[in-house]
Design goal:
mainly alpha, two-stranded antiparallel sheet, 23 helices, globular
Length: 534
């Protein structure tokens, strides 16, 4: 069950990876079309205004079509075969489902308590999805439909039909069955979902009303769930669905940017619902403090090699908001430090909230700049200066607390053990000493990862998240110890829970995942078994 939940969480993250670029486009577009910032140049009707609104129209694609993106993305992580075809099946079935819902509400909406004549958005409970006026079920509806299609695809795609019915085999057969399933599912949706929407509006009020305490608890839970790969399940409905605000925090914030840029009213008052995205502050200000503590507590002879490890992972955390490389560097040798990290992250976010710093702050500096600093610096620059001061103070707090704990309890963080400990993270010429046969499209690193996972025959499936491979194995006992994985250039840590294995490899995880899958497809298990343990 755990491995299925982890794969589901990883699949949900796929559309989110598009936010980095889309956010930059929306942020710049908002900046350049706000008269309060650009003056008459950005006045409505000017050539400048028209050109940037054309750019903005494209930038809104990801935020305006999130449900469709989630529906298409789920099969990437959950379909056991022919993922591309399953994506097509899920898209068509999701659109079919919404057409069914639209027509049911058109004829019987009044009887069901839904005023289908209202405009989409706001409190109407309606949305426009792929040009279809339908119930606003957001991400949850898309995942429900897509999950049903994935289950049908995994069971029915290879169904053998009589030769004279061969044209209906494969994806066509899956869609035929999906079509029949979507009709009762649409009926169930129009009967149940309006009541769920009413409950979500109550929940929105409770979450926003929780204030600073709610922010602290949420950030602590989000950090605490990262080692298990379950944090996506916590934040995805809040950020990208209507749990806190209609349409999700990201879409609502992006839509509100022009109004926020044109006012100097405190952001905490103008958009209190955005407070829960404060998970990024520990990435920008906490990680540098942790890295500095690791460096000063390391053995002098190990510091140079340790620095080569800490600099890239710290920059990755600060700029991109990806903290897993450095978190998994110390999670397994000193899990107590990770708990302290989660507590400090919660405190940092709570203090930011108390100081009125509210916005989309879940990613790194690049994302924060595009959603906040670039479009809003003119009207809310003072708030961001406060955030900088608070953040730098917490960098010092992180450093002092981690340094004291490491020395007080003699935690074997990187660089404090024997020289070989640092070498496991330095990883210079390990692969150059090995000679292995590898298939086309697969590196020696990927081949070795497969071998350490017990060989191709022990691997059920492989998907990827931002920095980690999520692997389902048949026999956990066949998976090599973590130290063998960490001897590879690309691996920083390994986390095993039953048959679910997470291999932390960094930002090039997509490339490595493709190479591992290429090995599995070519069934090179015999080649993977060459040589002894690393």
């Amino acid at each position: 069950m755990m491995q299925k939940i982890q794969r589901f969480g990883g699949a949900m993250f796929t559309p989110v990876m598009l936010f980095a670029f889309a956010g930059v486009v929306v942020g710049l577009g908002t900046l350049f079309t706000t008269p309060a910032i650009m003056g008459p140049l950005a006045g409505e009707g000017t050539a400048w205004y028209k050109v940037w609104n054309v750019v903005l129209a494209g930038g809104w694609t990801v935020f305006n079509q999130l449900p469709i993106l989630f529906a298409v993305a789920l099969p990437i992580g959950l379909a056991k075969k022919q993922q591309a075809r399953c994506c097509m099946e899920a898209l068509v079935a999701y659109l079919t489902f919404n057409y069914f819902v639209s027509q049911i509400l058109l004829y019987w909406g009044a009887d069901l308590g839904v005023d289908f004549a209202q405009e989409v958005g706001q409190a109407s409970g309606l949305a426009l999805i792929g040009g279809i006026k339908t119930l606003d079920m957001g991400m949850l509806g898309a995942l429900l439909v897509s999950g049903v299609v994935v289950a049908l695809h995994n069971r029915l795609f290879d169904t053998k039909l009589p030769e004279w019915l061969g044209v209906f085999a494969g994806s066509t057969f899956v869609y035929m069955v999906s079509f029949l399933v979507m009709l009762p599912l649409a009926v169930l949706a129009v009967l149940v979902w309006p009541h769920i929407q009413a409950g979500m509006r109550v929940l929105q009020g409770l979450i926003v009303g929780a204030g600073t305490a709610g922010v602290g608890i949420y950030v602590f839970l989000e950090r605490a769930l990262i080692p298990f790969g379950l944090h996506h399940l916590l934040y995805a409905p809040i950020y990208y669905d209507s749990v806190v605000v209609e349409g999700g925090i990201y879409a609502a914030w992006a839509n509100a940017l022009p109004q926020l840029a044109a006012t100097t009213a405190p952001l905490k008052e103008a958009a209190p619902w955005a407070a829960l995205t404060a998970t990024g502050w520990s990435k920008i200000f906490g990680v540098p403090g942790i890295a500095a503590a690791f460096y000063v507590t390391a053995r002098p002879q190990n510091r140079k090699r340790l620095l080569a490890l800490l600099v890239p992972v710290t920059l990755t955390a600060v700029l991109c908001g990806v903290t897993e490389p450095i978190e998994f560097t110390f999670l397994f040798v000193a899990p107590q430090l990770y708990v302290v990290h989660a507590v400090l992250a919660a405190l940092l976010s709570s203090v930011m909230n108390l100081c009125g710093v509210v916005g989309v702050f879940s990613g790194g500096l690049i994302e924060m700049s595009s959603f906040n600093f670039i479009p809003l610096a003119s009207s809310h620059g003072g708030t961001y200066l406060v955030a900088l001061a608070v953040g730098l103070c917490f960098t010092v707090v992180y450093f002092l607390v981690f340094r004291w704990l490491i020395l007080r309890f003699d935690f074997m963080t990187p660089g404090r053990g024997p020289d070989d400990d640092v070498r496991l993270h330095d990883r210079g010429d390990y692969q150059r000493k090995r000679a292995t046969t590898q298939p086309v499209g697969a590196s020696a690193e990927a081949l070795e990862i497969v071998r350490l996972l017990g060989g191709a025959s022990n691997i059920v499936g492989v998907t990827s998240c931002v920095t980690r491979l999520r692997v389902d194995v048949r026999e956990p006992a066949l998976v090599a110890p973590e130290r063998d994985f960490c001897a590879l250039d690309s691996v920083r840590a390994v986390f095993c829970r039953g048959r679910a294995v997470q291999v932390i490899v960094g930002m090039n995880v997509t490339e490595i995942c493709e190479q591992v899958n290429a090995i599995l497809e070519e069934d090179v298990a015999p080649a993977c078994q060459k040589g002894g343990q690393a």
